[in-house]
Design goal:
globular
């Protein structure tokens, strides 16, 4: 008769069964330092991807300057966070219109042409904002109209850019390409607002807009140097409206994609206090334009750190659950930002929120690109762009309205808590998204469950 120890169940290897040291990773669970960092192979191997990446990085840098400049200028003209939110909200229908039209058009025409035309339009609109800001009495109406037109242009360009990436890199490097895309976005998100604070303090609002004009010139030149990106063979030439309807009908049957979109909307509507950054910097913490710029930049600092260390994301298995956890971390960090009595703690909280957001973004892109059928890629990319860009604008309205009724700090805290509660609802209602696993992609129903 063996000892008590002999009669025990055999000791399971570390990481098997229910005792997984890395809850979301597929085996093996060990990660080398090299695998922790983002794979730059797409930049080395693809000239077209390098050009697109460079042009997008430049345009995003300029766009971040304009985002801060518009919020700062509107607040200076109106002294109202609600007005900042309303200006942002007014851009939303134009953004959605541009995204849906650009996505449908991108599935049946040369995507490079869309990128070049859209970039030129955005350069002209930024030029208009610069001229208006140099007037003795800048027009708020002009800011509203020009920013709405710019939202249309950005919506028109982004689906074509996003849907172009699978044409520029090999399928095995698709996640790496989107991770690099996030690195570029976050570099611009960090550098742009920080520079905008210096430009606002030293040279005025117009300087931010003029730098944006130059950034779009770089984007157009880089785009024109790319090879043509004609539509795939066999694509039927149908109207943009019919193509959009087909994409929406496809989305109604795709529960995983629905979960991706709703999870992001929850985080951005309730947990994105961007419209409150001027009030937080100028009135709550009694700082100046430099502090406002730091508040806009802090999430990007955390997101940049997350983006350059996304090598492990390629091996995440339970991707839906990982997205929900990342959004909960975002909501908790935003709540801490609203409760913080110190500038340093507030900046750290925003950085943590940015880290969680970029992890969520990379995983959401990975889920969509691996599950959406190729013929719908442009149109669902358009819907994704509408969600990604429209969500923060709804968040601007929500946070500005709540701040107008209560206070700036109450708006930030309540939004962060609502984000956490909303994440629990998404996990409960969209079970297919919550249970999404990369290892199940081979099953017959994996794409729609």
């Amino acid at each position: 008769m063996g000892s008590v120890r002999d009669r025990r169940s055999p000791k399971r290897p570390w990481g098997e069964g229910s005792w997984k040291p890395a809850l979301f990773l597929e085996p093996p669970y060990r990660l080398s330092v090299a695998r922790l960092f983002v794979d730059v192979t797409p930049l080395r191997e693809s000239r077209n991807f390098r050009l697109l990446f460079t042009g997008h990085l430049a345009s995003m840098l300029g766009n971040q300057l304009t985002v801060v400049a518009i919020a700062y200028q509107v607040y200076q003209l109106t002294h109202s966070s609600l007005w900042v939110g309303l200006v942002s909200l007014f851009q939303l229908p134009f953004l959605i219109w541009g995204s849906l039209w650009g996505g449908a058009l991108g599935d049946r025409t040369d995507k490079r042409r869309i990128l070049a035309i859209g970039g030129a339009l955005l350069a002209l609109l930024s030029c208009g904002l610069a001229v208006n800001s140099m007037l003795a009495h800048p027009s708020l109406v002009a800011i509203v109209l020009l920013s709405a037109a710019a939202a249309f242009g950005g919506g028109f360009v982004n689906p074509a850019r996003n849907a172009s990436i699978p044409r520029l890199v090999s399928p095995t490097k698709l996640v790496s390409a989107y991770s690099l895309n996030q690195v570029g976005i976050q570099v611009a998100t960090v550098v742009g607002p920080a520079i905008s604070g210096l430009l606002l303090a030293g040279f005025g609002v117009a300087s931010c807009y003029w730098v944006d004009v130059a950034s779009f010139v770089v984007f157009v030149v880089a785009t024109l140097r790319m090879d043509p990106l004609p539509p795939s063979e066999g694509v039927t030439a149908i109207s943009s409206w019919r193509a959009t309807k087909e994409g929406l009908a496809y989305l109604r049957t795709h529960k995983v994609a629905q979960g991706v979109y709703v999870a992001d909307l929850n985080a951005m509507i309730f947990g994105m206090p961007r419209a409150l950054f001027p009030a937080m910097g100028l009135t709550v913490f009694h700082g100046g334009p430099q502090l406002v710029g730091l508040f806009f930049a802090a999430p990007g600092i955390g997101a940049l750190l997350g983006a350059v260390t996304t090598g492990w994301v390629e091996r995440v298995d339970r991707r839906g659950r990982a997205v929900i956890v990342a959004i909960v971390v975002w909501g908790v960090a935003i709540t801490l930002f609203g409760l913080s009595p110190w500038v340093g703690l507030a900046l750290v909280a925003l950085a943590v929120a940015g880290w969680a957001d970029v992890i969520s973004a990379v995983l959401r892109n990975a889920i969509l690109q691996s599950r959406i059928e190729d013929q719908y890629r442009g149109r669902l990319s358009a819907i994704q762009m509408a969600v990604v860009n429209g969500g923060p604008r709804l968040g601007d309205l929500e946070s500005g309205a709540v701040a107008g009724i209560t206070s700036t700090a109450v708006s930030v805290v309540s939004g962060g808590l609502a984000c956490v509660v909303g994440s629990a609802f998404v996990a409960w209602h969209w079970r297919g998204f919550w249970n999404e696993r990369a290892s199940e992609l081979g099953s017959s129903d994996a794409s729609h469950s």
